């Protein structure tokens, strides 16, 4: 495994791989890797000749009052996980390497419809930062496939649109959320939770489970799904609890179309997000099975 810091080295390796007829799978991350990232890496390993993982805490996707400075970082641990998972290249550039003219530079702004609801409403500029940095990674690596977790559901919608609008010839592979056995979705930010906050955070997957079950009751309407979920969140500071159309991200008006129930809530000072597709598997059923085969 090679650790690359310079964009020129990335271009060289990517060109060599293409000349050798190998496909490139890219797993963009902000590091502090967990089993969710590992599942993405393993899938990329199985589906591509070469696997690149980027580790970069991207300043342009954090707001001025957010946790950029204290976002957890542990490069040695990340490199060990990547090595063990069979990664070919870890790309871990400095901020100056990716933003040589300073920030923000040229920006990729996703369409408003995809960024005004859910996290976009509370994190202005966040998805512009995400779309910009991922576009830069696509431009550098020219990956055949790029891997993202569905826990960041709105991010996946934004990135699908960005790749299509900017004509990147890359397939986005979207993988299910990995959960602890008690249902908590894996996130690098879970490290911020003390034991009591972690326990309180379990209300989120329980709320998703209740909404998912309510959607299966004959004649159920979106309002009933939201009410069923809300009952589990009474003690929490909820930023949003929304039921949106899977593709447009507009509020779901009936349950006849694929819809996603999404939550952002604080446990202590930590903001957590999670979601479930109402036409997919139950979140708590996934919790038990998702750990299989994942370190
Ligand atoms: O999901 C993340 O970790 C980040 O938003 C991403 C896609 C790596 C861009 O910085």
Task: Give the gist of this structure.
The protein has 295 residues and is α/β, with parallel strands linked by helices.
Question: Which percent range describes the beta-strand content?
Answer: 15-25%
CATH superfamily of the largest domain: HUPs
What structural class results from the helix and strand content?
A: alpha/beta
Order of helices and strands: EHEHEHEHHHHEHEHHHEEEH
Ions, cofactors, ligands: which are bound? pantoate
CATH class of the largest domain: Alpha Beta
Radius of gyration: 19 Å
CATH architectural name of the largest domain: 3-Layer(aba) Sandwich
What is the third-level CATH name, the topology of the largest domain? Rossmann fold
Give the biggest sheet. 6 strands, parallel
Biggest β-sheet: strands ordered side by side in the sheet: 1-4-3-2-5-6
* Number of distinct helices: 12
Mean of all residue-level pLDDT scores: 96
* Terminal Cα span: 19 Å
Helix percentage: 25-40%
Shape: globular
The number of domains: 2
DSSP, total strands = 9
Uncertain segments: 291-295
Give the oligomeric state of the chains in this entry, treating copies of one chain as homo and distinct chains as hetero.
single chain
């Amino acid at each position: 495994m090679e650790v690359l810091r310079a964009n020129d080295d990335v271009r060289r390796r990517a060109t060599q791989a293409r000349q050798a007829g190998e496909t490139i799978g890219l797993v963009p991350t902000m590091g502090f890797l967990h089993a969710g990232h590992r599942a993405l890496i393993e899938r990329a390993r199985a589906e591509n000749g070469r696997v690149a993982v980027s580790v970069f805490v991207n300043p342009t996707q954090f707001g001025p009052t957010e946790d950029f400075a204290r976002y957890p970082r542990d490069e040695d641990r990340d490199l060990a996980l990547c090595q063990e998972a069979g990664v070919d290249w870890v790309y871990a550039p400095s901020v100056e390497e990716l933003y040589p003219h300073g920030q923000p530079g040229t920006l990729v702004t996703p369409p408003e419809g995809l960024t005004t609801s859910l996290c976009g409403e509370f994190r202005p500029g966040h998805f512009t930062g995400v779309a910009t940095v991922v576009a830069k990674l696509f431009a550098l690596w020219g990956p055949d496939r790029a891997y993202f977790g569905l826990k960041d559901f709105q991010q996946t919608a934004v990135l699908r649109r960005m790749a299509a609008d900017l004509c990147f010839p890359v397939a986005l592979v979207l993988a299910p959320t990995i959960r602890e056995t008690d249902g908590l979705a894996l996130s690098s930010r879970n490290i911020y939770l003390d034991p009591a906050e972690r326990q309180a955070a379990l209300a989120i997957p329980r709320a998703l489970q209740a909404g998912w079950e309510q959607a299966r009751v004959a004649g159920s309407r979106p309002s009933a799904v939201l009410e069923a979920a809300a009952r589990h969140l009474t003690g929490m500071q909820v930023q949003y609890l929304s039921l949106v159309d899977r593709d447009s991200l507009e509020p779901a008006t009936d349950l006849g179309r694929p819809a996603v129930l999404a939550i952002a809530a604080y446990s202590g000072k930590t903001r957590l997000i999670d979601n479930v597709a109402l036409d997919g598997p139950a979140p708590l059923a996934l919790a038990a099975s998702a750990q299989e085969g994942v370190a």
